[in-house]
Design goal:
With about 240 residues, this protein is of the alpha/beta class. It has eight helices and ten strands. The two termini are about 20 Å apart. It binds 2-phosphoglycolic acid.
Length: about 240
């Protein structure tokens, strides 16, 4: 695992942007695995800026997002499709037809999950996967558990995750009870992974990434098995 501590959130975002820009220079038709949450917002701002300055071209990129609430309309302001459109895709020259987020209103979410993994395979796999990390070590919506799923699947959201995410909804009742998320194998088969962790509330989980243990009770620790994984964190997450 490569590990880099930056002074600030802005520097983490800039370092992550450098990795994405280098990836797109080396392979303009890259398949990018993308994430939602507050952490990637700075990176997305950097990528939009780089695009506006002519420094990066997304015209041949395909993107695959980690997860989506279920059920949810793609036009819902808290859907991850809406998040990606408003925070990145609407501001760069990516072809929207080449951007994929699990379908939050699929009639058969289990079939949608199988089809999602098949799509990733047909695309030749993910070249560069971006990840945030939950305070409890979750990756995507893969919550701590004795057993984790390998492939994309429907996950029942834990009460604590629904509580944490209720800040974005009018009330807890409105937070969806399920999500469709890529599984651990889907994530670990990406050729390169960048994991971002910022803020002192991520300190404990960053420490768990730096020790020698791997456990499904902190799903992110499985990433230590990956041959090309970079953890970027800020001072607040490192020092606590
Ligand atoms: P955050 O979420 O970026 O909003 O901290 C990360 C996550 O829960 O995976």
């Amino acid at each position: 695992m490569n590990f880099l501590v930056c002074n600030t959130y802005e520097e983490v975002s800039q370092e992550a942007a450098k990795i994405f820009e280098a990836q797109l220079k080396a392979k303009p038709d890259s398949v990018l695995g993308l994430a939602t949450g507050s952490t990637p917002l700075g990176l997305y701002r950097e990528l939009i800026r780089a695009y506006q300055c002519g420094g990066v071209d997304f015209s041949r990129v395909t993107s695959i997002n980690l997860d989506e609430y279920y059920p949810i309309e793609p036009t819902h302001e808290q859907s991850y499709r809406y998040f990606m459109d408003t925070n990145l895709f609407n501001h760069i020259n990516i072809n929207k037809e080449n951007t994929f987020v699990p379908n939050g209103k699929a009639a058969d979410p289990a079939a949608e999950s199988v089809a999602y993994d098949e799509r990733v395979k047909r695309l030749g796999g993910i070249d560069l996967q971006l990840l945030g990390i939950g305070e409890n070590g979750h990756i995507g919506f893969n919550e701590p558990s004795e057993q984790l799923h390998a492939g994309t699947h429907v996950e029942v959201l834990t009460e604590s995750t629904r509580q944490a995410n209720s800040r974005f909804f009018a009330s807890l009742d409105e937070v969806p009870t399920h999500a469709i998320t890529m599984g651990m194998t889907s994530i670990l088969t990406a050729r390169k992974i960048v994991l971002l962790a910022c803020g002192k509330n991520k300190h404990d989980v960053v420490m768990a990434m730096l020790d020698d243990k791997i456990t499904t009770s902190i799903p992110a620790t499985l990433l230590k098995c990956h041959p090309d994984m970079t953890l970027l964190c800020d001072n607040a997450a490192f020092k606590g």
